[in-house]
Amino acid sequence: MLKNSANNYRKGDQLEREISRGFHRSSRAVLISAKVLRERSMGQVDLARVRGELLEVAEVKNSSWITHKQIKRLRASTDFLGMCLNLSAKFTFIHK
């Protein structure tokens, strides 16, 4: 089971890298400290970019399944980061 979990992690990591290339094209990537978000009980962000006056935050998953709790934490992260950067913010869920 652990071997399968590690394999799924690698697949997710690979998918995130692939999506990241297109997601960040012609925009400014935003790097966010996972520690800062965790300290506020918010979700860690996979991808974030600024396009014009909009901050876009994305969660990337191999499956279309995401818990309500995780969505809530990620939306809190999106709102918090938008407030910090003084930008409108949008959360997107990207799945394979």
Question: Secondary-structure map with pairings?
Answer:
Elements: H1 2-24, E1 28-29, H2 34-39, E2 47-51, E3 54-61, H3 68-85, E4 88-95
Parallel strand pairs: 3-4
Antiparallel strand pairs: 1-2, 2-3
Number of domains: 1
Number of helices: 3
Physical arrangement of strands within the biggest beta sheet? 1-2-3-4
* Percent of residues in β-strands: 15-25%
- Could you spell the SSE succession in H and E letters? HEHEEHE
Report mean pLDDT, rounded to a whole number.
87
Helix content: 40-55%
Task: List the quaternary state of the chains.
Answer: single chain
Largest sheet: 4 strands, mixed
Please tell me what the overall shape is.
globular
Q: Fill in the CATH topology.
A: Trna Endonuclease, Chain: A, domain 1
Q: Which class best fits the helix and strand makeup?
A: alpha+beta
Descriptive overview:
- Helix content is 49%, strand content 24%.
- It is α+β, with helices and mostly antiparallel strands and 96 residues long.
- The chain has a 4-stranded mixed sheet.
- Strand 2 and strand 3 form a beta hairpin.
- It has one domain: 3-Layer(aba) Sandwich (Trna Endonuclease, Chain: A, domain 1), CATH 3.40.1350.
- The mean pLDDT is 87.
